Each structure stands twice: as C-alpha cells, then as structure tokens.
Amino acid sequence: MKLRSVTLRTLCIFLPILQMDSAKSPSEVARETLKLLAARRLSPTPDNYQALYEEVSGVRAAPNFPTAQLRHILHVMPGQTPGQKRLLGQLENAVAQQDWSMLKNVLVGYANLGLSPVATPPPASVSITQLPTTLAQNLARLVSNTLPALGEDDPRVHELAAQLCAFLREPERPIATAELMLSDFSYRLSFAAEDQAAIRQGLLGLLRLVFENIAALSIDEPWLHGQAEALLAASTPPLTLRRLDDVHKRLKDVIFKQSEAKDRTVQAQTQMRELLATFIERLAQMDESSSTYNETMERCAERIGRATQLQDIMPLLEEVMAATRAMALNSHVTRSELQDLRERTEATHAEITQLRRDLDHASAQARHDPLTGALNRKGLDEAMEREIARAFRLDTPLCVALLDVDNFKAINDRLGHAAGDEALMHLVRVTREVMRPQDQLARHGGEEFVLILPNTQLADGVKAMERLQRELTKRYFLKEQERLLITFSAGVAQVEGKNGSADAIRRADEGMYLAKRSGKNRVVAA
Q: Domains of the chain, with CATH numbers?
C-alpha cells in the first residue's frame, strides 16, 4: 500500500515527462519503470523513478526551473545604476517566463557591466566565453604586484600565483577556468594575508616591548632615554615609510652626536679623576713636608736650649735657615701646582657641564619632528603634561587647537611631496612668528598639527587661530614662481581636569572635522 501511494505521487510529479514522444507508449514505459524499481530493489523516490524512466524511454527530461531561488537572488542583487535596473527588469521577466536562454543572457550582461565601456547587456546571439585581454593583463599585473607583500612563508600561494599569471597571459582564456583559478588563489591569499598581518603585529609588539624596556632601564641616562622615547613614538601606528625613513635618519644623526658627546664626557671625567688624585698627592706631600719641617724645628730648638757656646748655635741656625728656605720653596711650588690644578679642575668641570648640555640637546632632538622641527607625539605628550600641571597649579585656563591643512593632497599630487614638505615648513614658520612664545606647536601626524595655548580661554583660542588664518592669507607660499595660498581648518577645545589631554584633543579633532564639512578654512569651538 505504501509503495502504491509513493508511486502515484511520483507519477503525478512526472506527468509532463509521460507526455514526451517515445517509441513506447507512456503506460508501457511506466510499467517497465516500476518493474525495474522492484527488480533493482530501489526505493520508489521521485529521483529514482525519473532516472529509470529516462533509461527506459531513452529521453532525458528538462530540469525544473528554480523559480523560487532565482526570485530570492533577484531581491538581493544591486539595482542602483540605470544599467543594473534595466537588467534586473529583464531578469524578472526571464524568471516569470522560465526562459533559460533569456536568463543566461541577462546574467552574462550583468556580469559584463564592469568590463564593457557602456553598461549594456550583450545581444542574445553573443555569448562571452573568453576573458578580455585587457582585463587578463590587469589581473596578471595585480597578482604579480601582490606577491612581494606576502613573503616566502607560503610556497603554495606563490605556486598558484605563477599558474594564474601564466594562464592569464595565454592567447585563449576561458572565463570558467579563470573564475576557478581566481577562486582558488583568492582563498589561499586570504590565509597568507592574515598570516602576514599577524606577523607584522607581532614584530611591532616585540619592538615596542624592547623600546619600553630600554626606556625603563635608562632613567639615569637621559641621552639613551631620549632615543628610546623617539623609537616608541616612531613605532606607534599608523606607520608610513616616509615617517620611518625620517625618524631613521634623525636617530642616526642623534646617535652619532650622543656617542661623540658621551666619549668626550668619559674623557673629561677621567681627567677630573686624575686631577683629584694629583691634588690629594700634593696635599699629602705638603703634609709630609710640614711634618718634616716641624720635626727639624723642634730638634733645633732643643739643641739650641742645650747649647752653652755661640759656636754651637751657628750650625743650628744655618740648619734652621736651610729648612725654612726649603719649606718656603716647596710651599711656593706646591701652591703653584695647586693653583694650576684648580684652574684645570674648573675647566674640566665646565667642559663636563657643557657636554651634559650637549647630550640633553641631542636627546631633545629625538622629541621633535625631523621635518618641521615642531614637537612630535612624545614631545606633545610631555608638553601637555607640563602645561596641564601648571594650569592646575595656577588655576589658569588651557586650550588646545588641532589644525589640518586644507587640500594638502592636491598640493602633493600636483607639485610633488617635496613641495608638500615645504608647505608644512612654511606653515610652521608662520605659526611660530605669529603665535606667542609660550604657545607650543606639535606635529600630530601627516598635515595635522596641535597648538597648546596656555592661559587661554576658549573664545580667545578661537580668535588666536582665526588671527593665524588671516596672517597665512597675507604670506603666500612660493613654489617654482607659483604663489600658493595655504589654509587650514581647525577645532579648539579647552582642557578640563588634570587628565583631560586626550579628551581635549579628541574634541578639537571633532571641531576640525566640522570645520572641514562647513567649507574649510574655518575655526570651530568644540
């Protein structure tokens, strides 16, 4: 009974198949199909019945049209451009009519939107089977340019890349093969890219750990401490090749200066120790000479006291006079030597003091941006900490302004990066001339700068930045006989609390962003 009900359902499902032309009548084909099901002991499922029916009749049935699945895909496909909307309409008609040919043409046309100059579907008679030459060349170039960033850790991804590039450079490039090879390569590439990203993060973490340890162990060595702090600032993301190269060159110069000054300091300290040793030796000799002289005087005085005749006293007086002259001469020589030692000691002390200043200056260079001379991130943090402590101690207001040069990318693109660097130096130069001596400028990154404005209310900080903008409009930046107007957008925020540095800079950055959105060359209080 169960077999009969399943068979009836199967016959209803494949009723259109039974209407197909065949040498045998549909009823005969159906009877033989049921006999084969029983003979082969197969379950009477629709799939088994269809397979045996096609075997008996010798006619393969057309596949069912996946209407529901295609309508679901239709709802999630993008339809923003006119070409996409037109093709989606054609796809909807193909699904409604269950037309395989129309469906194929529409899908090929949709896939071809990004490849052809005009986003129009291909005619029904055209079938794209080969990858266009220009696209293949661009893909091969893209794959080749990707490999250097992956390293040599994964030989499989390099093997797949070589195979893909060789295929893309062949005269004939079937789209189906290209799709399969690109899929395999992108799948392997995703793992290789994740590994490289993890390696970079791990190495950066190790470097920062080393730099932090150096800084922690060099508290008594300011010259080394400055280098470690500069390296910490340089290894703070986001990293750029230009930034790393600038810091590398700057640190090489600083290390050379510090090494030279350190050597001179060690030599000066050695000379100081030698002078002190000589000084102590001379003092000991003076003490010894004085003791000998006193003993001679006591002995002569005792002998004079026992003398009864003048001729006995004369030799004693000559001995006293000789001892006195020797003592005087020795004292004079010792005094001269001590005076010379004193002068040399003072000169050596002055040299050590100057060398320490040189070391401090060399260490301070590691706190400044190598291009503009403004404070770098580390210098900014130290300056903010000092100014916040001063403002809190004196109960005075403190503001920070974050400014970003307008259209800086256009300057770089049109005149080159060297012109962009000169434009930043021009901005820093004008800022130092216009702002107060106590105002401190720091490069926050790229074309962004931070101004620390001590003893300044928020409204006064806005006015100060607007005054700087007006001065910049009067002082053109000259590059290759071309006068360029440098402008900036800025946000100003007042520091609140002892630990409000990061919050104030964040609010100033939001104000700068609003100034950009409002038309640039503006100042917004945050």
A: 2-57 (no CATH), 133-200 (no CATH), 266-365 (1.20.120), 377-525 (3.30.70.270)
Question: What pLDDT score does 451 carry?
Answer: 96
Give the integer Cα–Cα distance in Å for 197 and 191: 10
**450 near 505, Cβ under 8 Å?**
yes
Which strand (E) or helix (H) includes residue 497? none
Q: Which two tokens stand for residue 223?
A: 């010259």
Q: Is the sign of the CA dihedral 159, 160, 164, 170 positive or negative?
A: positive
Collapsing DSSP to helix, strand or coil, 484 comes out as: strand
> CA 486 to CA 91: how far, in whole Å?
53
Q: Is the peptide bond before 397 cis (omega within 30 degrees of 0)?
A: no
Residue 244: the pLDDT is 63
Any idea what the Cα angle at residue 432 is, between residues 397 and 246, rounded to 5°?
110
Chunked into runs of 10 residues, the chain (526 residues) has average pLDDT values of 45 45 69 81 77 74 71 73 75 80 74 53 54 85 80 78 85 81 80 74 68 60 62 62 59 63 67 64 61 70 65 62 67 67 70 68 68 86 89 91 92 86 92 91 91 94 94 84 87 86 91 92 92
Identify whether the C-beta of residue 454 lies closer than 8 Å to the C-beta of residue 391: yes
Please state whether beta strands 440-445 and 398-405 pair in parallel, antiparallel, or not at all (unpaired): unpaired
Task: Give the model's pLDDT for residue 250.
Answer: 57
- Which of helix, strand or coil describes residue 482? strand
Q: Look up residue 168 and give its amino acid.
A: L
Q: What pLDDT does 289 receive?
A: 64
Amino acid at 333: V
Q: Is the dihedral of CA 510, 511, 514, 516 positive or negative?
A: negative
Residues with a catalytic annotation lie at 447
Bridge partners of residue 441, in order along the sequence: 451
